[in-house]
Each structure stands twice: as structure tokens, then as C-alpha cells.
Write a structure and sequence with these properties.
about 950 residues, alpha/beta, nine-stranded mixed beta sheet, five-stranded mixed beta sheet, disordered C terminus
């Protein structure tokens, strides 16, 4: 269950008559427990509570219904219960149906309220459902409740009006929902000059069977679209005439309203009875957007950009600078006025604005600074000089475009109430202005300069579909109220890796990149926004910062994208290195992202932000930040055919190209030797990535040229070789046909078969904190799905198993979907290693041996088991300790101490790489066969 569904279930439970016996189980069910779990608890066999009538769910909650007046005493008994401690309970809860008390045992936080009000605290218990972003949800509990209610209304209206879900009506339906949201907000904030006017009018004037509800709402909308002087002529009904004139395009156009069922009318009144003064326009927009988006509806309330994450973009982009200037101004009137004038000219532009989150937060933060200036100057009631039309956006979805504009209007009103008082806010709020500053269209096809021009003149609003909030007007060209100033581009554009892009999205990137590079096809979709922002910045005084998947700063995308950006004279001025962009889904699911800020304006100091596993952020000031988001020079790591450091050579494994006839399962290998007399020397252990990581057993037939004659005398082997020959002859490739002459051998052979092997999987899960690498005894054959070092000193394993090497691989090799993708030429051969003394090698060899011994201790656990992030510390502590020692020894070789974080590791590695590539030593030749490129 998601947060919206849980809130709804908890609210229904709170509203229902109290059932003492059923409450504990109904409460657990509201937080997503399955019927089978509830049944087991009810049976008593899975309920280890030691209190009469208590219900205990292990590792979760201990709750009890008690006699009236004994809630506090019962909560104490739950806290002191031995079962609470023994079964690692997180929450305790007691209620008598009148009062309600609960405690989070981890932090001691409590809830105490009347029983019907416990639904307001649903966010307190969300860890019971595996949802860890509790703080964000609790801060926005109203938005979640409102989203759930609106979703029920929306779905019921669709059921009653199926035609409204078709393309020709969908935009009208979305516009209708935007109008409703405005009415709910306006009636609770005195904009309608009478509290609850809209909901009360629907209650009084529409029939209980809902037969005329649509007519009543349509008449109210008509009134708000008609100036007061023209209402008598328009024949506005007396009961609708009480509503003020709103217009501004919100109520213009069609006044058609969907028909209501009795249930839909009930939902409408329920939504209207919520306290809409508590709406957060910065968050609510994204949530309500999901109501009208079929793809997002299944994850209702999960996907929104939290305010702290938005500020990770906006603060270093420009807000921090404004705050610093405010502090520097002190109480100096002229400096304060200059800052106020500067802010009035700032444009904030989000070319993927969705429902306006970034624009709303930017507006609210700037109003906060302006209010402080006015306070210092003694001008508390002074009107804001920051116009909404300076906050521009592009959004491809029509409803999101409407919600973005509405969210900004609500934000402006809330700021006026907060900083100037309700009376002045109401006096200047209506009628709404008709200006249109949010454009509906494809941001990668539109001309950003025409929407947000450098001079403030000739702003042409471009549309691909309907005009927003009304018919096309002569006012389509909107000049900025205050010309000049800076432009800050920001947002969270769609990421979409190359393999997930639609045909249209591919065409968008082709349109932008085709004339710039041949390799554009591998770029993430978000790259389009970066290059458009860079192009924009060549004509304007601007800076841009976007949230992006970290893949644009890893691997080959760096080589393709960033030289194009740097060619426009833009440089990276700040960045957040990889962190989880969390949402409201269970278990804090989220994509790994970076934030990158660029500008063509010279900057002396750049800031690099890094977030550790505990959420702590460190800031490093740097002279330069490169495309890999390291404090280093602008270099691109390129493939090297041989190691740049004095380390072992690494090769692809052997490719069979055999149709499967040279590869055997363990049982087939046993049968071959026991029943068909195959010499054991021809059957070898066969390892690729999966076999090594998951402990899977496979074998292969391995025959040297010198043994061919003897091997073919075995009938079973000979038949296998014939099958290989036939398979290779069928190929359309000439090179494969040639291999038919040596059917006893792998198609590509990279080892003799007598070497010791260090195996490195070609792909490894990003959830592992170390790259899996292992030692295999002589006779092991490595498949082409892994890399190998043959007869290499064991200290090489210590390098590969280190955090340093993982960070390097993750950065320069990039990912395959979400997994680390290893490369010998790009990752291993380029890995910077200092000159190692003999003692260093002895120490690292011992580290590698300790890692191998620690793994052996937990046999038969697999690499997948031991390196599972959630299990490593608790189940395999010796493996963790061995890796910690390895990192300690290795990092002291590099800098004499442990690195503070990955940012510092990368900085050192790039510094070394830069030196190594400018004074490269002559390469050494391999005597172990042809190396894969």
C-alpha cells in the first residue's frame, strides 16, 4: 500500500464505530498486513503478547485495547513488557475507544489524542508498512489526505462519465478539476468572503440524488467568469451571485461539468469539508497531477520532489547567494534596496516544470528574503516586487501545466497573507490576471529564448495544443515587468536511458544532437535539457542546474556529452554527487541521481556536495569540477590497451562459440567421466559472472591442441566435437565457419588452462559495497562473461576488492541498467596505482588472503550471500572486517590515512590519472596470448 491508500484506510477505521476486539487487527490491516497475517495473529499461535488481550507483531508493534480510563497505564505496561523487548517491537499503542496513545520506542516520540483524531497521525506509524520517508509524509499529511479524496471523486466521475476519459474530453475534465481545487482553497481562505461558500452552495442547491449537481456547479463557474456589472444582464442566479468575479482565464471557455452520481456528490462534499488552508502548493501539485495521469495513478502520492531535494538545486544555484547578500547588507538601506531590485529582475525558468514544484519553492524562498528586507526597512505592508510572470515553465502535459499555474497563484496568495496580512492579500488577489507564463509543449522542440528572452522583450508563448485557461488572446506576448537581470534554469527533467526512450524521444535527441556528434544515440534523455541550457547560456546571463541520473557523469556518456557542453564555454559550478532521490514508496525506493549546475559566467570557487550512507552532506570547495563530478581537471578517461600502472594484465575470458556442446552441467560432467570414460583432464571447472557470484556449478570440455588426437578417440567427446563443427558451419560469419576446423577448441582462447586465475565478473549489482573478485586454482576456465588475470600476484586482488577500485569503476565505466559494468581497458588498465614497495605487496597479499579466508569461514554461503548489503554486517562480519583492513592498508599507501569519502577518493585518483597520462611509460607486451580490446 502507498501512503495515500494507508491514510484512507486509517481514516475509515477512525470514522467507524469502535470495535474493541477487532481494532488491533483492523489497525494492522490498514497498514497493509495481508489477510493471512491477520488470520495467524487472530489464531494466537503467532501472537507472542504476554498481556491479556494484547496483540504483538514481531519486529513491529505491540498494541492493546483497555478499559476506559486506563490508556496511560496500559501504555506503560506495554513498554515494560518482556515480550516487547524480546521481539524487538518498534511501536506500542493503547486505546479505550475514547483516548489514544502510542510511542515510537526507537526515538521516544509519542502520540496522545482523542480516538477519532488518531487518523491525523497516520504518518507516525508508516514504518509499519515499510515506508521510511515518514518525515516528509507527516509534514504533508493534508496533501496526502486531499489527494486520496480527490482521487476517489475523480474515479467516481469517470465511472459516471466514461466519455470524459477520452482524448476529446480529457483536457476539459482536467480543467474542471483545477477549477474545483481553486474553489476549495478559496472558500477556506476567505477569498470568497464567506467560509465554506462553495461546499455550502452545492449542499443547499443540489438535489440529494445529485441529478442537478452539474448544473449548480456550472452556474457557480459562470458567475465567477462574469464581471459584477454584467451579471444582471447575464441572468446569474441569486444564489450564485454571491461568488466574486475570478476570471483570469480559469473560468473562461466551456462551462460544461460532468454529471454526478449520489456517491460522487458525497465525495465532493467530503473533499470540500477538508481544511484547504493547510495545502502546500509546492507538494500538492505533484500529488494531484497523479490523479489525472493514468500511468501515475497506480503509485498515487508516491512520486513527488521533496522540498529538501528541490533546495539542493536552488540553494547553490542562486538562493544561497541572495541570502549571503542579505546578510552582508545588514541594515544599510541602499544595499537592501539594491538587493530587492535585483530580485525583482531575476527570472526562474523550469523547462520541465511538471506541476510547478521548483518554481513554487523558488518563489516562496525569494518572497521570504524580500519580506526580511521590507522588515529591516520598516515597510512591512509594501507590495511584493517579485512578479509571478518571472517564474516561467514548459510542461508537456496539459493538466500539469494548469496545476503549475494554479500552484503559483496559491503560493502568491499564501505569501501575501503571511507577509502582508490577510486584508491586503484579499484586497489585491482578485480578479486573477490573464497572463500565461507556463507553456504547454515539448521543451526539446521549443525555442527557450522566445519563452524567456534575455532582454525581456518579445516573449512569444508557443503551444502545441490548447491555449491555457482560455482562448488565444492578443496578450500571448508577455513582457517581463522588470527587464534585465539574471536567469536561473532549473528542474528535474525526465531521465530515460537510451534503451527506454520512445521513438518520439529518440527523435527529440536526434533533432538536438545529430549535427554535433555521431554518438548521440547512447545518451540519456535528460542530456537534451543540459545542451539546450548550455545553448541558452551562450546568449544570456544565466546559470542552470538539473537533477539527472548519475549515468550522464559516468562511462562513455561523459565522452559524448560533456565536451559539447564545455565547447559552449560552460563549466560545472556546483554538483551533488550520487544520492538516492527518495519518494514516498515503500522502503524508500528511488533512483540514484546527481545534481549538476553549469554556467558560462566565470566563477572562482565551485562547490561539490557529497552525501554519505547516513544522509550527512559534506561540502568541498574546488577550483574545478570535472564531468565525472570530481574536484579535478577536465579530462576524459579513455581506453588503454595496457595498464598505465605496474599491475597485472587483465583479459576477457574464453568465448566458446560452440552451440552449447562444449559446456556441461555438473551432472553431465559426472556422467561423461563415469559412463563414457572421458579423461578427467578434459573436464574443467567453468566460471562466468553468475557461476562465480551465485556459486553455480558448470563444467566445460577443454582440450589443448597437443591432446586433440587422443581426445577424439573417445566416442562421446568425438560426437560433441561433430556437433560443434556442424553448428559453426551453419554460421553466416566467415570467421565462425573457419572455427569449424578446430571443433574441439573454444572459439576464442585466452588461457592455456594451467594458470591460477583471479576472476572479475563483468557485471555486478550496484547494491554491493565491493566488486566481487576471487581466486581460482589452476585448471579453472573463465568464460567470456568475466575478466581474468592469469598467474598474477595475489596483491592484485586486494586492489580490485577495494572501495577505491569500486569508486573508479562506477565512475569511468558506468552502469548496465543499475549494475556496475566492468571493463578491462577502461576500468582496470586506467586505474591509478602508486609505485608499490615489496612490503606494500606483502601487506596487500595478506589482505587478499584474509578476504579469502573470511569467505571460506562461511562456506557454503555464496558471494551473493556474503556481499548482500543488508546481510554483510550481521551475518558475515568477518568478510566486512577483512575488507575494512584491506581498505585501511591500501588507502594509507595512497595518502597516509583513510579517505574521508568517495569524493576525496575520486579527487586523488583523477590527480594520479592526469599525471600518469601526461608522462606515460612505454607499454609492456603480453606473453600470454592475444588480449581482448
Amino acid at each position: 500500500m502507498n501512503a495515500v491508500e494507508i491514510e484512507e484506510a486509517v481514516s475509515q477505521l477512525a470514522e467507524a464505530p469502535f470495535d474493541p476486539e477487532g481494532f488491533p487487527f483492523a489497525f494492522l490491516e490498514a497498514f497493509g498486513n495481508k489477510a493471512t497475517t491477520i488470520k495467524r495473529l487472530k489464531s494466537g499461535n503467532f501472537n507472542p503478547s504476554d498481556l491479556p488481550g494484547g496483540v504483538l507483531q514481531r519486529n513491529n508493534i505491540h498494541l492493546q485495547v483497555c478499559p476506559e480510563g486506563e490508556v496511560t497505564a496500559t501504555l506503560t505496561a506495554l513498554r515494560e513488557s518482556p515480550a516487547t523487548t524480546r521481539y524487538k517491537v518498534k511501536f506500542i499503542l493503547a486505546t479505550d475507544g475514547k483516548s489514544f496513545e502510542a510511542e515510537n520506542l526507537a526515538d521516544g516520540e509519542t502520540v496522545a489524542c482523542d480516538y477519532p483524531e488518531f487518523a491525523d497521525h497516520f504518518g507516525f506509524f508508516l514504518p509499519l508498512a515499510g515506508i521510511t520517508t515518514v518525515r516528509q509524509i507527516r509534514e504533508n499529511a493534508f496533501d496526502i489526505k486531499a489527494t486520496g479524496r480527490l482521487n476517489r471523486l475523480y474515479m467516481e466521475l469517470l465511472k459516471q462519465n466514461p466519455d470524459w476519459d477520452r482524448a476529446e474530453h480529457r483536457e476539459m475534465f482536467n480543467h474542471f478539476m483545477a477549477r474545483l481545487i481553486f474553489c476549495f482553497f478559496a472558500e477556506d481562505t476567505n477569498i470568497f468572503h464567506s467560509e465554506g461558500l462553495f461546499t455550502a452552495t452545492i449542499t443547499q442547491m443540489s438535489a440529494p440524488d445529485a441529478s442537478n449537481t452539474h448544473e449548480v456547479i456550472s452556474e457557480v463557474f459562470r458567475a465567477m467568469n462574469t464581471p459584477l456589472k454584467k451579471r444582471e444582464e447575464a441572468g446569474i442566479r441569486n444564489w450564485a451571485d454571491r461568488f466574486p468575479y475570478v476570471n483570469g482565464g480559469l473560468f473562461s471557455g466551456s462551462l460544461e461539468v460532468p454529471r454526478f452520481s449520489k456517491i460522487a456528490r458525497s465525495y465532493l462534499l467530503h473533499v470540500g469539508n477538508l481544511d484547504w488552508k493547510r495545502i502546500n502548493p509546492d507538494i500538492f501539485g505533484s500529488m494531484i497531477q497523479a490523479v489525472a495521469d493514468e500511468e501515475e495513478r497506480g503509485a498515487l502520492g508516491m512520486h513527488y520532489t521533496s522540498v529538501p531535494n528541490i533546495l539542493k538545486v536552488l540553494n547553490p544555484l542562486f538562493l544561497d547567494d541572495l541570502r549571503e547578500q542579505l546578510e552582508a547588507a545588514g541594515t544599510h538601506p541602499r544595499k537592501l534596496q539594491n538587493l530587492r531590485e535585483r530580485m525583482a529582475r531575476i527570472r526562474v525558468f523550469d523547462p520541465a516544470c511538471g506541476s510547478g514544484n521548483f518554481l513554487v519553492i523558488a518563489y516562496k524562498e525569494m518572497r521570504k528574503i524580500e519580506a526580511k528586507i521590507n522588515e529591516l526597512l520598516g515597510e512591512l505592508t509594501r507590495p511584493s516586487e517579485i512578479p509571478l510572470t518571472n517564474f516561467r515553465g514548459i510542461e508537456i502535459r496539459h493538466f500539469a501545466t494548469e496545476i503549475a499555474r494554479l500552484a503559483l497563484i496559491i503560493a502568491e496568495f499564501q505569501c501575501d497573507v503571511l507577509y502582508r496580512g490577510p486584508q491586503l492579500a484579499l484586497l489585491e488577489f482578485l480578479p486573477l490576471k490573464a497572463d500565461n507564463w507556463i507553456t504547454c509543449g515539448n521543451a526539446l522542440r521549443l525555442d527557450w529564448l522566445s519563452l524567456c528572452p534575455p532582454t525581456g522583450k518579445g516573449v512569444t508563448v508557443q503551444r502545441e495544443d490548447l491555449d491555457l485557461w482560455g482562448e488565444m488572446r492578443d496578450e500571448a506576448e508577455i513582457e517581463f515587468e522588470n527587464e534585465g537581470g539574471e536567469t536561473y534554469i532549473c528542474g528535474n527533467p525526465p531521465y530515460k536511458g537510451s534503451q527506454w526512450q520512445t521513438t518520439e524521444q529518440k527523435e527529440d535527441l536526434q533533432h538536438i544532437f545529430e549535427a554535433r556528434t555521431k554518438n548521440w544515440g547512447s545518451l540519456d534523455y535528460v542530456s537534451g535539457w543540459f545542451i539546450k541550457a548550455a545553448d541558452y547560456g551562450t546568449h544570456t546571463n544565466s546559470a542552470a542546474a538539473f537533477v539527472s541520473t548519475n549515468s550522464i557523469c559516468q562511462g562513455r556518456q561523459v565522452e559524448t556529452l560533456w565536451p559539447l557542453i564545455f565547447d559552449t564555454k560552460h563549466e560545472i559550478i556546483f554538483a551533488h554527487t550520487s544520492f538516492k532521490w527518495a519518494n514516498l514508496a515503500s522502503h524508500n525506493a528511488g533512483v540514484t541521481v546527481v545534481i549538476v549546475g553549469i554556467t558560462a559566467t566565470p566563477v572562482k570557487i565551485r562547490k561539490l556536495f557529497s552525501t554519505d550512507d547516513y544522509g550527512c552532506v559534506t561540502i568541498k570547495e574546488a577550483i574545478n569540477i570535472n564531468a565525472y563530478l570530481a574536484a579535478a581537471a577536465n579530462i576524459v578517461v579513455k581506453k588503454a590497451n595496457e595498464p598505465l600502472s605496474s599491475i597485472g594484465e587483465m583479459y576477457f575470458g574464453n568465448m566458446a562459440n560452440d552451440g552449447g556442446f562444449l559446456i556441461l552441467s555438473a551432472s553431465e560432467a559426472k556422467q561423461a567421466t563415469n559412463q563414457f570414460g572421458v579423461d578427467l583432464s578434459y573436464i574443467r571447472p567453468f566460471l562466468g559472472s553468475q557461476e562465480f557470484i551465485r556459486g553455480l556449478e558448470r563444467r566445460c570440455i577443454w582440450v589443448l591442441d597437443s591432446d586433440q588426437s587422443k581426445a577424439t578417440q573417445n566416442e562421446w567427446l568425438n560426437e560433441r566435437f561433430k556437433s560443434v563443427k556442424q553448428q559453426r558451419f551453419k554460421s553466416n560469419r566467415a570467421t565462425t565457419k573457419q572455427l569449424a576446423t578446430i571443433p574441439f577448441r573454444f572459439g576464442e582462447v585466452r588461457q592455456i588452462g594451467t594458470e591460477t586465475v583471479l576472476i572479475v565478473p563483468s557485471v555486478s549489482s550496484e547494491s554491493r559495497e565491493y566488486l566481487p573478485v576471487g581466486y581460482c586454482p589452476s585448471g579453472t576456465i573463465v568464460s567470456n562473461l568475466a575478466f581474468a588475470l592469469f598467474d598474477a600476484p595475489l596483491w592484485n586482488m586486494a586492489l580490485i576488492a577495494s572501495r577505491l577500485h569500486l569508486v573508479w569503476i562506477a565512475t569511468v565505466c558506468g552502469k548496465l541498467k543499475t549494475d556496475f559494468r566492468y571493463s578491462n581497458t577502461l576500468g582496470w588498465n586506467t586505474f591509478p596505482v602508486p609505485t608499490l614497495t615489496e612490503q606494500n605487496k606483502i601487506d596487500l597479499t595478506r589482505c587478499a588472503e584474509e578476504i579469502l579466508l573470511a569467505r571460506e569461514h562461511y562456506f557454503p554461503a555464496t558471494i551473493a550471500d556474503m556481499y548482500d548489503r543488508d546481510r554483510m554486517d550481521s551475518e558475515f562480519p568477518l568478510v566486512r572486517e577483512a575488507h575494512d583492513r584491506n581498505d585501511e592498508i591500501l588507502e594509507r599507501i595512497y595518502i597516509g590515512r583513510r579517505f574521508k569519502n568517495d569524493t576525496e577518493r575520486l579527487e586523488k585518483l583523477f590527480e594520479m590519472y592526469s599525471k600518469m597520462t601526461t608522462q606515460q611509460k612505454p607499454g609492456k607486451k603480453s606473453a600470454q596470448g592475444k588480449k581482448a580490446k
